[in-house]
Structure formats: C-alpha cells, structure tokens
Amino acid sequence: MNEQQPSPEQPPVTPVSGVDDGQGRRIGPRPLDRPAVDPELTAEFGRPQGVDSAFAPRATQPANGSIALAPPPPEALSMAFGRPDSAGDVVLQRAPGSLPYGSEPEVEPVFWQDSADRDPWRDPAAGAILGPPAATTEEPGEEKAKPATQSGPMLSVPELIFGRRVKPTALGALAGVALLIGVGGGIAGWAIAQSGNPLTSSVTLSQVDPGKERAAGSIADIVKRAQAAVVQIEVQVGSGGGLGSGVMIDSGGYILTNNHVVSAAASDPSATLRVVFADGTKTDGKIVGRDPKTDLAVVKVSVTNPTVIQLGKSGSLAVGDQVIAIGSPLGLSSSVTSGIVSALNRPLQANGEGGDPPVTYDAIQTDAAINHGNSGGALLDDTGALVGINSAILSPNDSGSIGIGFAIPIDFAKRVAEGLIRDGQVKHADIGLNARSVSAVSTDGAQVQNVKQGGAADKAGVAEGDVITKFGDRVIRTADELSVAVIERNIGDTVPVTVVRQGRQMVLQVTTQSD
C-alpha cells in the first residue's frame, strides 16, 4: 500500500493537541526543560530557611476573627488619586459587549495556519523579520481627516490671480489695503524728514570757484615748471646700449649729464646718441666734452627755444631740506620722486668707466628714490632750482634704491660744465701724492704713501709717512676726503696743510698744480 507523501508545495503538518475545526490546528505547549540547580548557587541565592513562598506571610488576624484593615490614606492622597464622588459604585468592567465572567468558550477560535509551528512569534529560534508599518485601514471613498496643524498646498502668483483660487473681491481688498499702507508710510516718512532734521529741510549749496593754481613751492608746481628741462638720453652701440638722463642748462642746446651715461658713445664712432624731450620729441645729440674724474659730460642738441633749468646754489643747502629728483629710472621718462637732504659734503670715490681714472667728488646725499636711469638727471630744491646732478646710489648687490642716493653739487658741476663747453676738457688741481686712510688712538687722517718728485707736495716738504689731518679749513679723516679737498681747489691756490710727522704736528704751505 502506497503511503501518501506530503505535497512539495505544502510542508508537512506536525500533529498537535487541540481542537481541529477544519481550518488548522492549535499548537500545544512545548515540553518544559528544568535543568538541575547547582547546590552552591542554591545556597547563595535561594530562599532562607522557613520561607517557602515569594510572597510575605499573611498578617496575624485579630483574636475576634475580624480582618485587620490598613489605616485610611491621607486626605491629600485621597483627593488627588481617589475615585470622584460622581463615580458612585462603578467598578472595573470589561468593554461594552464583552462576555461576562464565566461565559468564555472553552476553546478559542483557531487563528493559526498549518505552518503555525514555524511562525516567528511562536518560535523563539526563528530569525527576526521586519514587517510593514502598522496602518489603519480606510473604507473606500472615505476621506482621511488631516491633522489640524498640517498646512495646505502653497499657491503661486498665477494660481492666485488666474487660477480662481481666491475670490476677485478678496484680491481687490488686499490690493486696496496694500495701497493704503504704502501711501500712509510715504506721507509719514516725508513728514518726519521735514520736521526731524533741520539740516535737510532747506539746503542751499555754496558756490565753488574754479580750481586755482597750486601754491608756489609745492611739488606739483615745481615739476610743472622744471619737467620740460629734463631729458632722456639713449645710447645705441651695435645691438646693445644704455640710457640715462640729462638737464638743459643753456639756451644754446647744452645738456649736462654724467660721463658714464655717454662714455660708450665716446669710445665707439659707430654709436648713436639720441635725446628724448618730455613731450616725446627726439633729436640727435653730440658730445661736447667729458670729465671722467668728476663723472660729468656735456651734450649738445640743435633745437630752438628749449626750456632751460634755473641754476641754484648747492652751498646754501642744509641737511633736512626738501629736494626733488626728476629723470628716467629704468626707462620711465619724466619720473618724479621727492625726499630730503640726508647729508652734505659726503666724499665719494668710485671706479672709472672703461679705464678712466677714479671718480672723485663731494656729494649731496639724499633719500629721494634714485635708480638706474636717473643718472644725469636733476636734483631740485624747494624753489625748483637745480642744486645737483644725480649720479650714484649705494645698493647691496645692485638691488636698486634703498634711500641712499648721491648727487654732484651744482656749484662744483657748473664750473666743470663751463670748462667743457669752452675748452672741451677740464684740468683739476693736484698736489702730486698718493695716500691711504689711517686711524689711530689720537688721530685719524690720510697717510702719505709716495710723493711725486717735483710735485706740489714735494716742493712744500711733504714726506712719505706723514699723516695729513687738515687741508686748508677742512678736517681730513680719510684719503677720499683729501682727494675731494684737493680737486675742489683752483689750480695755483696756496693751501696750508697740517701734517703729523713722528708724533710732531706741523703746517706746510702747498701750492696746487694742474693734473
């Protein structure tokens, strides 16, 4: 006889105790597994001797057989948690329609399916499964009530005006209210402005006269008058060249500049020299004369009615006076910087250009910004007069202006320029010796290294080893100061010279000669 096999689609049903009403079977209780209790745990956590229940023993009844009642609760607790007087004798009861006590059916309706033995709610070993969220069911056609706090959909402007979501009368009323608020606010603001601030209630602007010329002595006024007399000098030698600045000092077209600006053009016949004026006009220039010892040169151009600078007096300068530098630094023509006189009579010696003798002059030191290209340009005082020719700067590693610039005093440069224009060259005073700077505990000066035979120093009795401490009225502390003091003298001047020889001081009369 073939045994009936369970269908593969339906898992086999395990018989359980209960009532079968044709819809499924009730699952019976699982067998209770009571493991043995460890005696040590029993002794540690078990009930004390004589206690066989988890509940406290009943209180001893009174001797008369009545039940001992608990004392009445406090009145405050009765009022807070007691039954209200209107409740009467109402007791806890089931919900309306439920069965009274004692009438429950012996067998509850079956609600388990055939696979109830694997239901996760009945099987503690079953894995947890997340189900759908609980939700109330709604009858078809029944509209769910919205919470009172939930707002409706927002209306756009087209919906508000053209979508007939708001009555036209309501729109008109809203527009009227907005108009009234705007008109009222405007009237109130106008009234407050008129009455609250007397400065704006009635405004009368003062008349403004046309701008006047700047006061004489201002930098703008000085530049306006003197800028046209400062030119840019361009030297082209083959594929290279250089540029600098110059100052028009004579109506005949004579321009005073530095020798190192034009020295390349003087040594190369194929070189070209062009002069560019402040208005952009260009013309060819010609070297009239050069003086390498003082780093000065004169260039001539053929122009009519040029703007000529007014010459000042460098001897009247004082430290702290305002000065203005005009030139073409780095090719930027007609550039203006200003500063003060930082020092006067600063002896300066520099190497000559292309084998020329060392440059020697008594410089004006200024903190006006001077850079490459300013050489040969003008240094003006606060009246606009020319007091110096910008020529050099002191700059570590040739890094540009650091506020230490030097200019040749115009009192000295004028004498050299006149000699170059007249003769094409200049002779300077000389005493025929070489010296080096020395410093001792008692004195500083220029120590004579050698004396030219037949020279002015030799004739005056100056010997090697003598230390010159004074030349005329000028104190000598270094060899540079001696060179500057000599070159500023005229040829043939007799000058008292103070020397120290073997610790003994003496004064010798030295008559300068031509170099």
Automatic annotation (TrEMBL):
Gene3D superfamilies recorded: 2.30.42.10, Trypsin-like serine proteases
GO biological process, one term: proteolysis
Keywords: Hydrolase, Membrane, Protease, Transmembrane, Transmembrane helix
Ion transport among keywords: no
Region Disordered: start-end pairs: 1-83, 88-107, 116-152
Domain PDZ: 420-503
InterPro entries on file: Chloro_Bact_Ser_Proteases, PDZ, PDZ_sf, Peptidase_S1_PA, Peptidase_S1_PA_chymotrypsin, Peptidase_S1C
Entry's Gene Ontology molecular function annotations: serine-type endopeptidase activity
Biased composition (Low complexity): 124-138
Membrane-traversing stretches: 170-193
Homology family: Belongs to the peptidase S1C family.
Name listed for the protein in its UniProt record: S1-C subfamily serine protease
Native source species: Kutzneria buriramensis
